[in-house]
Amino acid sequence: MHAATSLSMVSLLSFGYLSMEWTKPNKVEEHNQNDSSITFEPKQPPHIIFILTDDQGFNDIGYHNPDIRTPTLDKLASEGVKLENYYVQPICTPSRSQLITGRYQIHTGLQHSIIRPRQPNCLPLDMTTFPQRLQEAGYATHMVGKWHLGFYRKECLPTRRGFHSYFGSLTGSVDYYTYGSCDGPGLCGYDLHEGETVAWGRGGKFSTHLYTQRVRKILSTHNPSCQPLFMFLSLQAVHTPLQSPKAYIYPYRGMGNVARRKYAALVSIVDEAVHNVTYALRKYGYYRNSVLIFSTDNGAQPFTGGSNWPLRGRKGTYWEGGVRGVGFVHSPLLRNKRRVSKALMHITDWYPTLVGLAGGNVSLTEGLDGYNVWPTISEGKESPRLEILHNIDPLHRRTGLPPSGSGQEAQHLWDTTVQAAIRVGDWKLLTGDPGHGDWVPPQVLANFPGSWWTLERNTGGTGKSVWLFNITVDPYERSDLALQRPDVVKQLLARLAYYNRTAVPVRFPTDDPRANPDRNGGAWVPWVGGDEDEQKWNGVYKKGRNKRKKKCKLGKLRSFFKKLNTRIMSNRI
Questions:
Q1: In this structure, which of 45, 89, 342, 410 has its CB flanked by the most CB atoms within 10 Å?
Q2: Helices of type H across 477-565
Q3: What is the DSSP string of 157-208?
Q4: pLDDT number for residue 26
C-alpha cells in the first residue's frame, strides 16, 4: 500500500492533458534478444490474418494456465510477441466497433450495451472502416464468422463495410450446429449468411470447423504473390452455448466442473482451428510475408465455464477481468521476436497499425483514437499510448447514491453515478457501477459456486461510486486508493470530463417488430429499406418512458437470458 500511494504525480494541464512526467514510460520485458531466427523483408505489403475469439478469458490459454491445452497458440505466442498489457472492451459490440473504426465508443454512439438483433442500429455508416482502407491499399479483404455490428439495413452488412466476401452470422450468439439465434422467447431465426444472402441448408456442421474450412478455401484459391490479403476470422467460440463435441471434452474429463470442462474443450477447438489456418498459410505461400494477430473480444463469464483469474471481475464489467485481453502477434516480419511486451495497447490501435503496415494512408481518417503500435510490437519501442478511455455510458447510472467524489471539489468535476472507467499511466479510475467485482477462482469443483466461493467475494464497496487503483503495482485491483490519493482522483475525473465533451449522443433505439424472423422467411436479415428516412431510427433508449410496460418486457428478457447463460450486462447474477 505504501509503495502504491507514494508514486509521484503531476498536474493535468488545460483540458486534462497530462504532462510527460506523470506516466512512466511503457516498458517492454524482452526475452532472447539475440534470437537468430530470420526476419523476412516483404516485397509487397504483408498478408494480415486477424483471429478474434469470443469471451476467452485471461486464464483461458495455455501460456497463462497449463490446465488449458492450446499447444498451437502457445507456440505461436512464444515465437512472436505476447501482449501482456493489452486491453479490449467488456462486451462484444463495443470491442468489434472499436476494432473496425479505431474509435472509442463515445465517438460512435455505441457506448451503451450491445446491438441486439431487433434494434435498427449498426456501425455508423459515415465512418470509414479499416478494411475499407485496406481495400483502397489494394488488399483482397475477407471476413468469416461473427459480425454483431448491426444489420437492419443492407448498408450495414460486412460486404458494404469493407469486405469483398463474408460468410458467418450477423447476430451476437447462435447455435453451433443449427445456426439458430434468439432474441427473446419465440423470437428465433436462422443466422448463417453467404455475402448478402441467407446460407440455407448449411446446418449440422460445427461452426468453428465450418469457418476454418472456409478460411482454408479462400487461402487456397487466392494468389498470394499477386495481391495482399486481409483475413478476418471472427470465431463464435468460446461464447455460449457450450456445445463442445464429445471428442474434445474427453481430454478434460478430470475437471470436476462440467461447464469448465465443456468450455475448455471449446478453447481446444479454437487451438486446432488456428493450427489448420497456419498450416494453410505455409502450404499456400503466405507465411513468410504474413502477420497473424490473435485477440479475444472481452473477458470470460466464469459462470459459464470461463476464467479471468487472478484478475478481478468478468465479462460485462470494467474491472481488469472484463477488459484486459489475451493477445499476441506472430510474424516472420517481427524484428524482435520471442518476448513479452508490457507496453500499453488497446483494441483501437489495430486500425492505424494495420493500415500503416499495409502502406495505406492513415491521415485520410480523422478522429482516430488508436495509435500505430507496430514499432512497439516489432521492435520493442515504447508505446505511443499513455492512456485508455475504457468507456463513459451516460445511460448506465448507479441508483440510490448521490453524486460524489474524493473531496468536495471533485464533486463539481464529474457525476460519479455515471458508469465510466479510464486508465492513465499506472492509474485506473472507475465511477458509477463498474459491474460484478468478485475474484472468481478457476471453476474446477463440481459444486461451483459453492459456499467456499465467499472467501473471494467482494463484500465491501456497496455504497461507493469511485475507485482508484495503481494497476502497475496492483493488477488484481485489491487496494482501492481513492481516499489516500484524492489528488489523482481529481485529475482523472477531470480527464473523464474532457473526454465527455467530445462524446456523440448515444444511439440505442427501441426494438422494431418488423425484424422478427417470422416476418422474414425464418431468418435474421435486413428489414429496413434504403428509401426509409434514417432520422426515424436515430433513437435513444429512454428508461423513464412507459415504465410499467418496459418493466414487464425487461423482466421477460431477463428470465430468458438467465436461462441461456447470456446475461452479459447483468451485474447481479
A1: 89
A2: 486-500, 547-563
A3: SGGGTT-SEEEEESSS---TTT-EEESSTT-EEE--EETTEE-TT-TTS-HH
A4: 37
